[in-house]
Amino acid sequence: MSDIFTRFGTPLGHPVQRDPSEYAFTEIITFEFAQPVDLGNEATPVGQIWAKMIQTYSTQESVKMLWWGRRVEMPQVELPQVIKLIIDWKSSDNRKHFLASPGFTNLYKQWQSCPAPFQSSSPSLFALTSSAQSRENAFALPPTRNPHRLGPYISVFVTFHFSPTFDFSKIHILDTYIPSRTKQKVWEGAWVSFRQIALKSEGGIISSGNADGWGVDEKSFIGVFRFMNLETAQKFFAEAQDDNPEQIPGLGGLQRLQKLADGEVSWDIEFVRMVCKMPADPVVKNDGPLFPGLFSK
Predict the structure, then answer these.
(1) What's the superkingdom here (predicted)?
(2) How far is CA 37 from the centre of its chain?
(3) Are residues 246 and 145 in the same domain?
(4) Same domain for 122 and 139?
(5) Is the pLDDT at 292 greater than 60, yes or no?
């Protein structure tokens, strides 16, 4: 039995709150189901719980947007099934109130009785790009019209985990003629360069922007991209992890970011096919159920 909701309520801290009418931060939760589940089938117990959770979150006044999707494994495997739930919150205070609400308590009880074995991560809170359009680009659902022409979009989650001993404030001297900067500023500058290369790559060029930002723990950072398909995304990020002695643009970009952090950073790369967006985009016609089947063909 997962203690997902117990961890939801732990003091995680919150980023500096922006305009509460616009955007405060994004919460990302990872579910890992041990057995195949069809979360879109409300005739099943786990489908009912999932639908109730999506409805509960999406109807909160302070939830700006919500998405969820399935991580795509390579080579293709069915188990475990890893699900990403992404929630845009308008207000830090309202999220805290929700965690203490009867609605949240009810969800906790329902997950306690969930018959499908699963594990879940502690929620991660990131102050992502403040532009709603950039976040929607990153978490975009695959197109329902002309999918072969537009491509079966894939979202790529690149999460960096810095060592607790890494000193972000340490001065990094690049050249005696260049003003010195902190290691954090140098690292962020290198990330911007890598980000631009990713957005101009074969598969990344379909997106006008990405979403990225620091975690509230100040020791993690995430970048989310939308690529044309799984193949182009895997190709780019495989090359980005290679050593790059010839300094070919894009090659070894993640290795360079690691070196700039004195080797005190690791990363996870996850390929996620988004399934549902709430509220649904009014310009996209969808004749299917409110919560489409996760593994429907």
Answers:
(1) Eukaryota
(2) 21
(3) yes
(4) no
(5) no
Q: Alpha-carbon distance 65 to 23, whole Å?
A: 10
pLDDT at 289: 37
Q: What would the pLDDT profile of 23-63 be if each residue is shown by its tens digit?
A: 899 999 999 998 888 898 899 999 999 999 999 999 898 89
Which residues partner with 88 through β-bridges? 26, 65
Check whether residue 181 and residue 100 sit in a common domain: no
**Cα dihedral sign, 214-215-218-223:** negative
* Burial environment of residue 32 by CB neighbours within 10 A (0 to 12, 13 to 18, 19 or more): middle
140 and 261 assigned to the same domain: yes
- Per-residue burial over 279-297, b if 16 or more Cβ lie within 10 Å, else e, is eeeeeeeeeeeebeebeee
Give me the amino acid identity at 136.
E
Is 247 exposed, middle or buried, given 0-12, 13-18 or 19+ CB atoms closer than 10 A? exposed
Predicted confidence at residue 78, as pLDDT, reads 55
Going 249 to 240 to 207 to 17, the CA torsion angle's sign is: negative
Task: Say whether 56 sits in a helix, a strand or coil.
Answer: helix
Distance separating alpha carbons of residues 80 and 58, to the nearest angstrom? 26
Domain count, the chain: 2
Residue 112 has pLDDT above 90, yes or no: no
Residue 146, domain member (yes or no) = yes
Say if residues 160 and 221 touch (Cβ distance below 8 Å): yes
pLDDT for the residue numbered 278: 86
Enclosing domain of residue 266: 135-271
Structure tokens, 267 = 């990363």
**pLDDT tens across 55-67, in order?**
999 989 889 899 9
